[in-house]
Design goal:
heterodimer, A: 355 residues, alpha+beta, Rossmann fold, OB fold (Dihydrolipoamide Acetyltransferase, E2P), six-stranded mixed sheet, five-stranded antiparallel sheet, 8 helices, 20 strands, elongated, B: 291 residues, mainly alpha, MetI-like fold, two-stranded antiparallel ribbon, 12 helices, 2 strands, 2% strand
Chain lengths: 355, 291
């Protein structure tokens, strides 16, 4: 059953600025949807529109089949975790978690049971009488989640909840959020600018660019078949190598002297892409092309080699290769590479759409 | 944090001007007052007689002094309460204004630039029983206004005059306090199902409490000691001492009653009160509620 439906949803500010032209999205019950995109792409605005904190100027928002466009945030049966947690600083953890229940007239005994259940689930039972100021960042984050969970809402909304945590805690909380969401099976809409967070958490993700959904799909769909160059560059780290090229009867012409053979119907200007992890080290006899090594990043398990493509032109075309294990090529040396055909991505140069 | 100067004399030289000013305009007159409090002087200032604590004994046996204390309490707490309540209401409203925000806020701050005496005159004219538009309006709706005869009305007039000025000051602090509350807290409360009334009393008001407490102390001190001008230009302590606050009584007894000894004794008591309030201010405000 669909739980949350965004039908032709749009937002235009009174000054005429169109933050979100139109978005369509249906979310199944229990699904974890991540909205991802660079800052200013409208992802937070969209989330706040679902929450009822921003007005919706166009389209319909349905929660469990009911149109909620004009309902107050409190009447939409949603709970939200804010980026800065938005805990009430003058209340104890218990009071913070209870506040929503209290306003809805839940009895004292029931409130107590619910708070204790959630507190135990999140490991907060020792902290119930403390104030937010006495908690660490990770604990505050947990309280913010607890406050949302206690209400047992139809939809969870997360607005970059992990961006204020340090890297290690972020990974830990990421795993925890995913496990909790699976356990509770509550429909979730999660906003982030971090593509790793997006890939690991999402059942499906929505890549937003300038208020438009560039692509909606599972993480692997987006990784394997990015619909646009924007998605291709946004998903995956380091991002995909993309080069301007011409598709002719001879194949993909990266420059006058460098052509990759490929039969294709299309003729014209294209962008040719390949992910850093799909390039293979080779030798002069078998290699498709070579690069000149400019920098080497050794991460232990893998090595990132930054270089420029040697295509016979003066124009430097940066390229990144990701190799498993340790490698130590000299700076300035030449490295031969093969690019397996099945990992090629072709995009139309004008529309930026996948061919 | 401490700062150490390598020079020995320079720090003293730098604070010297302030010390001189304090000595000439505060310590010396205060010392004179302390001395005078133990003497009785004739009305022309020609002879003095040491009387020990007699001025203080007289003071604390004088029913008029206790009446003045009650008047001061009623006046000060009314000014502080009214000033805080109205300013908070205005600040909450101003915080919601989006268009013309600057104009609105600037206009609300202006009264603070008006001298207390002028504020007094302004309200005195507005409420004048013969020509004041407010008084005439009140008369028309059947409320006879004459603060020259009615003590309660005189009190209301001085409270309004003194509060009017202080509202601007309080307003600025409340507005800054409101703007320091993260919007997401209000939004979280809205999602938690709190009505706008509840959001104010459960979230906003408690978070403003450090500001409110600071303003309470500042306003009390203001009403106690800095409202001489307001009272002098409106009621002069009358009618029948109904607006005769402690500070105004010091002036009246000393300069009109020409009882310099009694007046000096009263100012010693006032100094003690100031000292006490300063201690309270430092004790509680410096250590204000931290979140």
């Amino acid at each position: 059953m669909t739980d949350l439906v965004l039908k032709n949803i749009g937002k235009t500010y009174p000054n005429g600025y169109q933050a979100i032209p139109s978005i369509d999205l249906s979310i199944e019950e229990g699904e974890f949807i991540v909205l991802v995109g660079p800052s200013g792409c409208g992802k937070s605005t969209l989330l706040r529109m679902v929450a009822g904190l921003e007005t919706i100027t166009q389209g319909d928002l349905l929660i469990k089949g009911n149109r909620v466009n004009d309902k107050e945030p409190a009447d939409r049966d949603i709970a939200m975790v804010f980026q800065n947690y938005a805990l009430y600083p003058h209340m104890t953890v218990r009071a913070n978690m209870e506040y929503g229940l209290k306003n809805r007239g839940v009895s004292k005994d029931e409130r107590h049971t619910k708070v204790m259940d959630v507190a135990q689930m999140l490991g907060l039972d020792e902290l119930l009488d403390r104030r937010p100021g006495q908690l660490s960042g990770g604990q505050r984050q947990r309280v913010a989640m607890g406050r949302a969970m206690v209400r047992d809402p139809k939809v969870f909304l997360f607005d970059e909840p992990l961006s204020n945590l340090d890297a290690k805690l972020r990974v830990q909380m990421r795993v925890e959020i995913r496990q909790l969401q699976r356990k509770l099976a509550t429909t979730t809409l999660y906003v982030t600018h971090d593509q790793v967070e997006a890939m690991t958490l999402a059942d499906r993700l929505v890549v937003l660019n300038k208020g438009k959904a560039e692509q909606i799909g599972t993480p692997m769909e987006l990784y394997d078949k990015p619909a646009t160059t924007f998605v291709a560059e946004f998903i995956g780290s380091p991002s995909m190598n993309l080069f301007d090229a011409m598709l002719t009867e001879r194949g993909i012409e990266l420059s006058e002297s460098l052509t990759l053979l490929m039969p294709h119907q299309y003729r014209g200007a294209i962008k040719w892409g390949i992910r850093p992890e799909h390039l293979l080290q080779s030798d002069e006899a078998n290699g498709d092309f070579s690069l000149q090594v400019q920098a080497v990043e050794s991460l232990g398990a893998e090595t990132l080699i930054h270089g420029v493509l040697e295509d016979g032109t003066e124009q430097p075309k940066p390229i990144v290769v990701r190799l498993a294990g340790p490698h130590l090529p000299d700076i300035g040396s030449r490295m031969w590479l093969t690019a397996p055909l099945k990992h090629w991505h072709l995009f139309d140069a004008t529309t930026q759409q996948r061919l | 944090m401490s700062v150490y100067f390598p020079q020995k004399k320079l720090p003293y030289l730098l604070v010297l001007p302030q010390l001189v000013i304090t000595a000439i305009f505060f310590l010396w007159p205060a010392g004179q007052a302390v001395l005078q409090a133990f003497y009785r002087e004739d009305a022309f200032g020609l002879s003095q007689q040491f009387v020990g604590l007699e001025n203080f004994v007289d003071l604390f046996q004088d029913p008029l002094y206790y009446k003045s204390m009650v008047v001061t309490m009623v006046f000060s707490f009314s000014v502080a309460f009214l000033g805080i309540a109205v300013a908070l209401w205005l600040a909450v409203m101003a915080d919601r204004v989006i268009r013309g925000r600057m104009v609105y806020q600037t206009l609300l701050v202006w009264p603070y630039a008006v001298a207390p005496a002028l504020a007094g005159v302004l309200w005195w004219i507005l409420f004048d029983p013969n020509i004041g538009p407010v008084a005439l309006f009140l008369d028309r709706i059947g409320l006879h206004w004459n603060h020259f005869l009615n003590g309660d009305q005189a009190m209301i007039l001085v409270v309004i005059s003194a509060t009017w000025k202080q509202i601007s000051y309080n307003f600025l602090f409340f507005l800054a306090g409101l703007q320091a509350i993260p919007r997401s807290l209000i939004e979280a409360a809205a999602i938690d199902g709190a009505s706008s009334f509840k959001r104010f009393w459960d979230i906003v008001f408690p978070l403003l409490s450090p500001t409110t407490f600071f303003l309470l102390v500042v306003n009390l001190v203001y009403a106690f000691f800095e409202t001489f001008g307001v009272i002098d230009t409106t009621t002069q302590g009358g009618p029948d001492g109904s607006t005769n606050t402690l500070v105004y009584k010091v002036f009246k007894d000393g300069f009109i009653g020409l009882d310099s000894g009694g007046s000096a004794a009263q100012s010693i008591v006032l100094m003690a009160i100031v000292g006490l309030m300063t201690v309270i201010q430092f004790r509680f405000i410096e250590r204000k509620v931290q979140y």
